[in-house]
Amino acid sequence: MWEIYNNLISRIPENIKIKRCLMGVNWFLVESEGIGMAMRPLEVYGKVSIPEHIAGMKVCEIARYIKSWNNYEAALGLAAINSVINTESNVSKIYPGDINGQPNESSFISLKEEIIGKNVTVIGHFPRVESLRRICKLSILERKPDEGDYPDPACEYILPYQDYVFITGTTIINKTLPRLLELSKNANVILVGPSVPMTEMLFSYGVDVLAGTVIVEKERAWDVIQEGNPTKFFKRGARRVNISFEDYKNVQWRDEIQLSKKDI
Protein backbone atom coordinates (compact mmCIF):
# COMPACT_ATOMS: atom_id res chain seq x y z
CA MET A 1 0.00 0.00 0.00
CA TRP A 2 2.98 2.32 0.49
CA GLU A 3 4.32 1.82 -3.02
CA ILE A 4 2.85 5.04 -4.45
CA TYR A 5 4.17 7.04 -1.50
CA ASN A 6 7.64 5.52 -1.63
CA ASN A 7 7.84 6.21 -5.36
CA LEU A 8 6.84 9.85 -4.86
CA ILE A 9 9.50 10.29 -2.18
CA SER A 10 12.14 8.62 -4.35
CA ARG A 11 11.59 11.22 -7.07
CA ILE A 12 12.97 13.99 -4.87
CA PRO A 13 16.74 14.63 -5.27
CA GLU A 14 18.81 14.85 -2.09
CA ASN A 15 20.30 18.28 -2.77
CA ILE A 16 17.23 20.52 -3.24
CA LYS A 17 16.41 22.87 -0.37
CA ILE A 18 13.21 24.60 0.69
CA LYS A 19 13.19 28.37 0.20
CA ARG A 20 9.98 29.16 2.09
CA CYS A 21 6.83 27.57 3.43
CA LEU A 22 3.26 28.72 4.09
CA MET A 23 0.63 26.82 6.06
CA GLY A 24 -2.32 28.96 5.07
CA VAL A 25 -6.05 29.04 5.69
CA ASN A 26 -6.89 26.87 2.68
CA TRP A 27 -3.58 25.68 1.23
CA PHE A 28 -0.10 24.63 2.28
CA LEU A 29 2.66 25.96 0.03
CA VAL A 30 6.30 24.96 -0.24
CA GLU A 31 8.76 26.67 -2.56
CA SER A 32 11.91 24.96 -3.80
CA GLU A 33 12.47 24.59 -7.55
CA GLY A 34 8.84 25.58 -7.99
CA ILE A 35 5.88 26.12 -5.68
CA GLY A 36 4.03 23.02 -4.54
CA MET A 37 0.50 23.05 -3.19
CA ALA A 38 -1.55 20.76 -0.97
CA MET A 39 -4.99 21.41 0.46
CA ARG A 40 -5.08 22.19 4.17
CA PRO A 41 -6.76 19.19 5.85
CA LEU A 42 -10.08 19.68 7.59
CA GLU A 43 -9.39 16.82 9.98
CA VAL A 44 -6.21 16.25 11.97
CA TYR A 45 -5.43 13.20 14.08
CA GLY A 46 -2.91 13.41 16.88
CA LYS A 47 -0.25 15.95 17.72
CA VAL A 48 1.42 17.86 14.89
CA SER A 49 5.17 17.42 15.08
CA ILE A 50 7.06 19.33 12.39
CA PRO A 51 10.35 21.28 12.51
CA GLU A 52 10.14 24.85 13.78
CA HIS A 53 12.08 26.23 10.82
CA ILE A 54 11.31 24.53 7.52
CA ALA A 55 13.00 27.01 5.18
CA GLY A 56 16.53 25.83 4.51
CA MET A 57 15.74 22.16 5.07
CA LYS A 58 16.13 19.62 2.30
CA VAL A 59 12.92 18.90 0.40
CA CYS A 60 13.53 15.17 0.75
CA GLU A 61 13.43 15.48 4.55
CA ILE A 62 9.98 17.09 4.52
CA ALA A 63 8.74 14.88 1.66
CA ARG A 64 8.89 11.87 3.98
CA TYR A 65 6.04 13.36 6.02
CA ILE A 66 3.69 12.26 3.25
CA LYS A 67 3.57 8.86 4.99
CA SER A 68 2.45 10.38 8.29
CA TRP A 69 -1.00 9.54 9.64
CA ASN A 70 -1.22 13.11 10.88
CA ASN A 71 -2.93 14.88 7.98
CA TYR A 72 -1.18 18.22 8.58
CA GLU A 73 2.20 16.54 8.37
CA ALA A 74 1.17 14.53 5.31
CA ALA A 75 -0.13 17.64 3.53
CA LEU A 76 3.15 19.43 4.19
CA GLY A 77 5.03 16.44 2.77
CA LEU A 78 2.86 16.47 -0.35
CA ALA A 79 3.36 20.21 -0.88
CA ALA A 80 7.12 19.64 -0.61
CA ILE A 81 6.99 16.87 -3.21
CA ASN A 82 4.89 19.02 -5.53
CA SER A 83 7.40 21.87 -5.23
CA VAL A 84 9.86 19.70 -7.15
CA ILE A 85 7.52 17.75 -9.44
CA ASN A 86 4.98 20.40 -10.44
CA THR A 87 7.30 22.85 -12.13
CA GLU A 88 6.53 24.18 -15.58
CA SER A 89 9.66 22.56 -17.02
CA ASN A 90 9.00 19.13 -15.48
CA VAL A 91 5.33 19.00 -16.42
CA SER A 92 6.15 20.06 -19.99
CA LYS A 93 8.25 16.89 -20.31
CA ILE A 94 5.15 14.68 -20.09
CA TYR A 95 2.86 16.77 -22.31
CA PRO A 96 3.32 16.91 -26.10
CA GLY A 97 2.22 20.53 -26.47
CA ASP A 98 2.56 23.82 -24.62
CA ILE A 99 0.87 23.62 -21.21
CA ASN A 100 0.26 27.36 -21.37
CA GLY A 101 -1.81 26.73 -24.48
CA GLN A 102 -4.34 24.70 -22.52
CA PRO A 103 -7.65 26.48 -21.78
CA ASN A 104 -7.03 26.68 -17.98
CA GLU A 105 -10.33 24.95 -17.26
CA SER A 106 -11.28 22.19 -14.85
CA SER A 107 -11.33 18.57 -15.96
CA PHE A 108 -15.09 18.52 -15.34
CA ILE A 109 -15.43 21.00 -18.21
CA SER A 110 -12.75 19.57 -20.49
CA LEU A 111 -14.23 16.05 -20.23
CA LYS A 112 -17.86 17.16 -20.35
CA GLU A 113 -18.60 15.65 -23.76
CA GLU A 114 -17.05 12.31 -22.82
CA ILE A 115 -19.14 11.75 -19.69
CA ILE A 116 -22.57 12.43 -21.21
CA GLY A 117 -24.90 9.56 -20.25
CA LYS A 118 -22.15 7.73 -18.34
CA ASN A 119 -21.93 6.44 -14.78
CA VAL A 120 -19.74 9.01 -13.07
CA THR A 121 -18.48 9.23 -9.49
CA VAL A 122 -16.75 12.25 -8.01
CA ILE A 123 -14.78 11.66 -4.83
CA GLY A 124 -14.74 14.95 -2.98
CA HIS A 125 -17.53 17.54 -3.19
CA PHE A 126 -16.03 20.01 -5.66
CA PRO A 127 -17.69 23.42 -6.18
CA ARG A 128 -20.70 23.27 -8.53
CA VAL A 129 -20.12 19.60 -9.31
CA GLU A 130 -23.87 18.97 -8.87
CA SER A 131 -24.46 20.56 -12.28
CA LEU A 132 -23.11 17.36 -13.85
CA ARG A 133 -26.33 15.58 -12.85
CA ARG A 134 -27.96 17.11 -15.94
CA ILE A 135 -25.71 15.15 -18.29
CA CYS A 136 -24.64 11.96 -16.50
CA LYS A 137 -25.55 9.48 -13.78
CA LEU A 138 -23.65 11.18 -10.98
CA SER A 139 -22.63 9.88 -7.55
CA ILE A 140 -20.71 12.10 -5.13
CA LEU A 141 -18.71 10.51 -2.32
CA GLU A 142 -17.74 12.72 0.58
CA ARG A 143 -16.26 12.12 4.04
CA LYS A 144 -18.77 14.63 5.44
CA PRO A 145 -21.62 14.20 2.96
CA ASP A 146 -24.03 16.96 1.98
CA GLU A 147 -27.61 16.16 1.06
CA GLY A 148 -27.56 13.83 -1.93
CA ASP A 149 -23.96 12.72 -1.35
CA TYR A 150 -22.85 9.24 -0.34
CA PRO A 151 -20.58 8.65 2.67
CA ASP A 152 -17.12 7.53 1.64
CA PRO A 153 -17.55 3.85 2.69
CA ALA A 154 -20.00 3.58 -0.22
CA CYS A 155 -16.95 3.54 -2.51
CA GLU A 156 -16.70 -0.23 -2.05
CA TYR A 157 -20.16 -0.68 -3.57
CA ILE A 158 -20.21 2.07 -6.22
CA LEU A 159 -16.77 2.41 -7.82
CA PRO A 160 -16.50 -1.03 -9.50
CA TYR A 161 -19.48 -0.13 -11.71
CA GLN A 162 -18.46 3.33 -12.88
CA ASP A 163 -17.37 4.56 -16.29
CA TYR A 164 -15.55 7.64 -14.97
CA VAL A 165 -14.17 8.32 -11.50
CA PHE A 166 -12.84 11.73 -10.49
CA ILE A 167 -10.65 11.45 -7.39
CA THR A 168 -9.49 14.46 -5.38
CA GLY A 169 -5.75 14.72 -4.86
CA THR A 170 -6.33 15.01 -1.12
CA THR A 171 -6.85 11.24 -1.04
CA ILE A 172 -3.06 11.05 -1.19
CA ILE A 173 -2.97 12.88 2.14
CA ASN A 174 -5.56 10.73 3.93
CA LYS A 175 -4.11 7.47 2.48
CA THR A 176 -7.30 6.36 0.70
CA LEU A 177 -5.92 6.71 -2.84
CA PRO A 178 -4.43 3.20 -3.23
CA ARG A 179 -7.72 1.49 -2.37
CA LEU A 180 -9.77 3.90 -4.49
CA LEU A 181 -7.58 3.12 -7.49
CA GLU A 182 -8.05 -0.61 -6.93
CA LEU A 183 -11.83 -0.19 -6.83
CA SER A 184 -11.80 2.01 -9.95
CA LYS A 185 -9.79 -0.32 -12.18
CA ASN A 186 -12.70 -0.68 -14.63
CA ALA A 187 -13.17 3.09 -14.97
CA ASN A 188 -11.44 6.03 -16.55
CA VAL A 189 -9.74 7.65 -13.56
CA ILE A 190 -9.07 11.36 -13.31
CA LEU A 191 -6.94 12.57 -10.38
CA VAL A 192 -8.07 16.14 -9.71
CA GLY A 193 -6.94 19.25 -7.89
CA PRO A 194 -3.94 21.40 -6.95
CA SER A 195 -2.71 18.68 -4.57
CA VAL A 196 -2.07 16.27 -7.47
CA PRO A 197 1.60 15.46 -8.23
CA MET A 198 1.92 15.80 -12.01
CA THR A 199 4.12 12.75 -12.51
CA GLU A 200 3.83 10.02 -15.15
CA MET A 201 4.47 7.48 -12.39
CA LEU A 202 0.80 7.67 -11.40
CA PHE A 203 -0.27 6.35 -14.81
CA SER A 204 1.21 2.98 -13.85
CA TYR A 205 -1.24 2.75 -10.92
CA GLY A 206 -4.38 3.18 -13.00
CA VAL A 207 -4.71 6.95 -13.31
CA ASP A 208 -5.79 7.96 -16.82
CA VAL A 209 -5.71 11.76 -16.49
CA LEU A 210 -3.67 14.02 -14.21
CA ALA A 211 -5.73 17.17 -13.67
CA GLY A 212 -3.51 19.31 -11.48
CA THR A 213 -2.04 22.77 -11.12
CA VAL A 214 1.21 24.43 -12.13
CA ILE A 215 2.17 27.79 -10.65
CA VAL A 216 3.68 29.87 -13.44
CA GLU A 217 3.88 33.26 -11.66
CA LYS A 218 5.28 32.53 -8.22
CA GLU A 219 4.91 35.84 -6.37
CA ARG A 220 1.48 36.58 -7.76
CA ALA A 221 0.07 33.19 -6.81
CA TRP A 222 1.79 33.17 -3.41
CA ASP A 223 0.28 36.54 -2.48
CA VAL A 224 -3.25 35.50 -3.46
CA ILE A 225 -3.07 32.22 -1.54
CA GLN A 226 -1.50 33.93 1.47
CA GLU A 227 -4.47 36.30 1.57
CA GLY A 228 -6.77 33.30 2.02
CA ASN A 229 -8.76 33.21 -1.20
CA PRO A 230 -9.44 29.52 -1.93
CA THR A 231 -9.60 29.61 -5.75
CA LYS A 232 -8.62 33.03 -7.14
CA PHE A 233 -5.05 31.84 -7.76
CA PHE A 234 -6.31 30.07 -10.90
CA LYS A 235 -6.61 33.52 -12.48
CA ARG A 236 -3.57 34.98 -10.74
CA GLY A 237 -0.42 33.02 -11.33
CA ALA A 238 -1.57 29.39 -11.47
CA ARG A 239 -2.79 27.22 -14.33
CA ARG A 240 -4.97 24.14 -14.43
CA VAL A 241 -3.19 21.49 -16.48
CA ASN A 242 -4.75 18.27 -17.77
CA ILE A 243 -2.43 15.51 -18.99
CA SER A 244 -3.74 12.13 -20.11
CA PHE A 245 -1.91 8.84 -20.42
CA GLU A 246 -2.39 9.23 -24.19
CA ASP A 247 -0.60 12.59 -24.02
CA TYR A 248 2.30 10.95 -22.22
CA LYS A 249 2.48 8.12 -24.76
CA ASN A 250 2.64 10.71 -27.54
CA VAL A 251 5.61 12.32 -25.80
CA GLN A 252 7.37 8.96 -25.60
CA TRP A 253 6.63 8.29 -29.27
CA ARG A 254 7.96 11.73 -30.25
CA ASP A 255 11.13 11.25 -28.20
CA GLU A 256 11.73 7.81 -29.71
CA ILE A 257 11.49 9.29 -33.21
CA GLN A 258 13.93 12.04 -32.30
CA LEU A 259 16.37 9.49 -30.91
CA SER A 260 16.10 7.30 -34.00
CA LYS A 261 16.73 10.31 -36.27
CA LYS A 262 19.99 10.94 -34.45
CA ASP A 263 21.12 7.46 -35.44
CA ILE A 264 20.62 8.14 -39.14
Automatic annotation (TrEMBL):
Recorded superkingdom: Bacteria
Domain DUF4213, first and last residues per copy: 5-85
Domain Putative heavy-metal chelation, chain residue ranges per copy: 117-242
UniProt name for this protein: Heavy-metal chelation domain-containing protein
InterPro entries given in the database record: DUF364, DUF4213
